[in-house]
Design brief:
Length: 305
């Protein structure tokens, strides 16, 4: 019996209703359906008084989700998509992402197009696009105390008030550099249109095998964003006497104590998007962010009355 998953945002009533509807419809057509909420991809926060509060990446996979599952439907916004990939990336389940939110930058289709999209998918009329994810790990005295997968970015900064911090950053085998800034963003190409873009970073097309480092409000005219091969791991050490905080994909994080070490590298688990047509990244940029919209040209001549 073929198996399909449904991951939905249980905070949104419409997502719950659509999940229930498609579970019934797919079961009628002979599919085994495994429904779960996106909550399982939201990571816990480690605190200074309980720093070992973390879950291994592979342990976030929901029961019933495995490499025998054909695909899963995601019902929600970009946050639900990010959470869903943390759940399923270790077992390689491709996701059909359906927008029930607002921006929907990471979604493939809309609710009103879902019946046609599902019919195409069930007939095998799709392709799979793989995008790089980052593995983020925090070490305290060489002991792993927290880890997470992220599709967009990892941010390290001071909390609760924004102020300048000092970071020692080492990329691959290169010599460490010191960065004075409010924070540091380590981003994938997918995340280049998220927080990194707002912080002044470049837009990267998804297929480019690179990672980017973006200082947040750097205290130097020479500190600018850096793009480098994603085969190079990044190690960040805080040079501050106060704790910092890591935020992964905008919804989960942990505290970084003085002397702790943060390591990021390309994950062996890619995010696998189910695409109904060939991806057109520039079209998405134009529709979602207004990039490259045509402007009205100035007239070359004026007709006098």
């Amino acid at each position: 019996m073929p198996k399909v998953g449904i991951i939905f945002n249980d905070v949104k009533p419409v997502a719950c209703q659509v999940a229930e509807h498609w579970q019934s419809k797919l079961e009628t057509r002979g599919y085994q359906v495994v429904p779960v909420t996106g909550e399982g991809g939201l990571l816990g926060y480690s605190m200074p008084d309980r720093p070992l509060c973390h879950t291994r990446m592979e342990n976030l996979v929901p029961p019933g989700f495995d490499d025998q599952m054909d695909f899963a439907i995601v019902l929600g916004g970009d946050g639900t998509v990010l959470s869903a990939f943390r759940q399923v990336a270790p077992v390689g389940v491709p996701l059909l992402t359906v927008n029930t939110g607002h921006m929907g930058f990471l979604t493939e289709t809309y609710l009103n197009q879902l019946p046609e999209a599902m019919e195409a998918v069930l007939q095998g009329q799709y392709r799979i696009e793989e995008r790089a994810m980052l593995a983020v790990r925090l070490f305290h005295e060489d002991q792993l105390i927290w880890e997470a997968l992220c599709l967009n970015e990892m941010v390290i900064h001071r909390e609760p008030l924004t102020s300048m911090c000092h970071f020692e950053v080492a990329i691959g085998h290169h010599s460490p550099v010191d960065i004075a800034a409010d924070g540091v963003i380590i981003s994938t190409p997918t995340g280049s249109t998220a927080y990194s873009l707002s912080a002044g970073g470049p837009v990267l097309t998804p297929g480019v095998p690179v990672t980017q480092l973006i200082p947040i409000c750097p205290h130097s005219l020479a500190s600018r964003g850096l793009v480098f091969p994603d085969s190079e791991p990044v190690t960040i050490t805080s040079a501050n006497p106060d704790p910092l905080v890591i935020v992964v994909d905008g919804n989960a994080g942990c505290y970084v104590l003085p002397g702790d070490r943060v390591e990021t590298q390309r994950s062996p688990y890619p995010a696998r998007f189910l695409r109904l047509q060939d991806p057109e990244f520039f079209k998405v940029l134009r529709e979602k962010l207004g990039w490259g919209l045509p402007h009205i040209a100035k007239p070359t001549s004026v007709e006098l009355p």
